[in-house]
């Protein structure tokens, strides 16, 4: 499943540079599927959703750092454990029960965003 940042976030910014999928954004910032991935133009996500990778998407939180669930792979394909949770000083990066995915699905997302492996 994806990781979610709770409202206990203190906006320290430590997690953002650690995310291998560029799935973490500062509150109120727009996000894009193309940021930090190989995605460009119109794409169909592994979950069937059609998106424009370069189109700016609305912030998920205006107050605290947030994670795009479509881009989070729980760090699978890159690291042994979620890097955001590992560095967060207040332990507010937790499993998102509303976005439950299998290991296979998470690895599929990682390969889709990074077909060259990086
Ligand atoms: S678990 Fe990994 S991929 Fe997901 S937001 Fe945290 S650092 Fe990024
Ligand atoms: S590391 Fe934790 S407290 Fe800091 S910005 Fe990220 S989620 Fe918020």
UniProtKB/TrEMBL annotation:
Gene3D superfamilies: 3.30.70.20. Keywords: Iron, Iron-sulfur, Metal-binding. It comes from the Bacteria. InterPro entries: 4Fe4S_Fe-S-bd (IPR017896), 4Fe4S_Fe_S_CS (IPR017900). Residues 1-29, 63-98 form the 4Fe-4S ferredoxin-type domain. The keyword Magnesium does not apply. The keyword 4Fe-4S does not apply. This is 4Fe-4S dicluster domain-containing protein. It comes from Winogradskyella marina.
């Amino acid at each position: 499943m994806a990781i979610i940042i709770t409202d206990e976030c203190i906006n320290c910014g430590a997690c953002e540079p650690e995310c291998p999928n560029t799935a973490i954004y500062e509150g109120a910032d727009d996000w894009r599927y193309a940021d930090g991935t190989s995605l460009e133009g119109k794409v169909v996500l592994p979950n069937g959703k059609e998106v424009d990778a370069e189109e700016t998407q609305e912030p998920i939180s205006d107050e605290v750092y947030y994670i795009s669930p479509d881009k989070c792979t729980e760090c699978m394909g890159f690291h042994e454990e979620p890097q955001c949770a590992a560095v967060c000083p207040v332990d507010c990066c937790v499993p998102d029960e509303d976005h439950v995915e299998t290991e296979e699905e998470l690895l599929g997302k990682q390969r889709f965003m990074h077909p060259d492996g990086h």
